[in-house]
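Hi there. Long-time user, first ticket. I'm pasting a complex I've been working with (about 548 residues overall). I'd like to know whether the download I got is complete or cut off, because the file seemed smaller than I expected. Thanks.
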Amino acid sequence: MTIQEKQDIIIEEFSVFDDWFDKYALIIEYANKLKPLDETKKTPQNIIEGCQSRVWIDASINEKGQVVFVGDSDAIIVRGILALLLYVLSEHTPQEIIESELYFIEKIGLKEHLSPTRSNGLVAMMKQLKLYSIAFSSKKG
Amino acid sequence: MSINNQLIRQDFPILLDKIYNKPLVYFDNAATTQKPMCVIDRIVHGYTHGNANIHRGVHFLSQKATEEHENARTTVQHFIHAARSSEIIFTRGTTESINLVAFSFGETFCQPGDEIIISAIEHHANIVPWQMLKDRKGIVLKVIPMLPDGTLDMPAFSKLLNNKTKLVAVTHVSNVLGTINPIQEIIQLAHNSNVPVLIDGAQAVPHIAIDVQQLDVDFYVFSAHKVYGPTGIGVLYGKEEWLNKMQPYQGGGEMIAKVTFEKTTYNELPFKFEAGTPDYIGSTALATALEYIQQIGLNAIATYENDLLQYATAKLLQVPGLKIYGEASHKSSVISFLVQGIHHYDMGTLLDKLGIAVRTGHHCAQPIMDYYGIEGTVRASFAFYNTKEEVDKLIEGVNRVVSMFKI
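Hi, the file is complete. Here it is re-exported in full:
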């Protein structure tokens, strides 16, 4: 599945809910499904510090040359959004990730979490995912 | 006089707004208060019919604007019972007022090794300016420790005072814990050692009647926007004897008596500390806000808000796993809390979706968070326009979030 196809699946899944609480219940469900990050990976190097919550992201390359992301957050909602992001971007080549356009967060009505006033590190988090990919792609090159 | 809540709510247009199609429950009053129509009208009137730059103007509008600005100063003077209107300096807010004192008092009176005492429950606005003074002048910052209930360790404070102490700067009310500090006692103890005191009144002025002469406080500072007035204007009250000795904070127009390229002599109080065009529309709107709450009565407000605080505290404590931070017996209408296992960001985000506005995070008071070993709290803060029905909605919302996390 392409990054775009994955995003469209999420948008579809969220589109059935009108009530905000139901949307968030689904995000929490995603958060609970995300494999907890190994404590040893919660290093200062992997942390993205926000004003409101903390996010950890680690990345590696699999045998197919795809980037595999793992991550966690201390806030469940941020963790849920992170789970969605990791689902969308993980197991794609660095090039695919770098070129990807992430539109699903806005489409499912979670744009507020990206605003700088929320300072929850989500914007930094998305940047970080691409930075990892750029690093891997330059290593390969 | 008691509070007629339904009547009062009609004075605040924003309270009728809906958020996500739900009636707004505004519990972020410690961050800023909503504005009554009379304050909004005053701003509109000011720009519509009263706008001209104040002081020095010979024309009618300028004189009228000057008079209204100076009348506003007198209103503030009477509101906090200052002896003279020249002791009221208009600033941009509490933060600027503290920075002004930290600079002007610090430059005039502080030498390397001198000590300034603050407390463990200060807002960053009453920490950072003193740290900057420390870097500039080599002063030493001493901190009154806090106790688990959110009150200050008063015996420890007494021990901190010594002949190197130049100033005590503490908050009247904690913006996180609601603790009302025993400022009368703090001022008394400091004065016994001949040390002046600055009180950060940002969280107190909307809730407690202030009499600076009775308190015998040397500096008292607050913001208009937290007391139902406009943003961008605030007050520094300072005793004349201190303000006269202190060097100016900023240079520019208005604050001078005579300027040549060789030397400038400064204007008298309060203008010495008011460089540039002041917010003369904001000052009059602040005066309107103060008159408005005086009409309702600060004692009635305090009684009503305390009743709400007690009601909300009792109800919140019934929520399983909920802990309240700040349990001083003498407390303002602020409740910081956390529910076990639920991040403050999650609680705040979900309450928001129910139309309930609370604040989450460290509330610009990270040392308090460090003391409790937490990252942040959820904070609900009440004003006299809030109701028990709204508190019920908060409790219902919290319970809904809690049950969501149990699944």
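A couple of notes from our side: The domain at 3-140 of chain A is CATH 3.90.1010.10 (Sufe protein. Chain: A). The mean pLDDT of chain A is 87.
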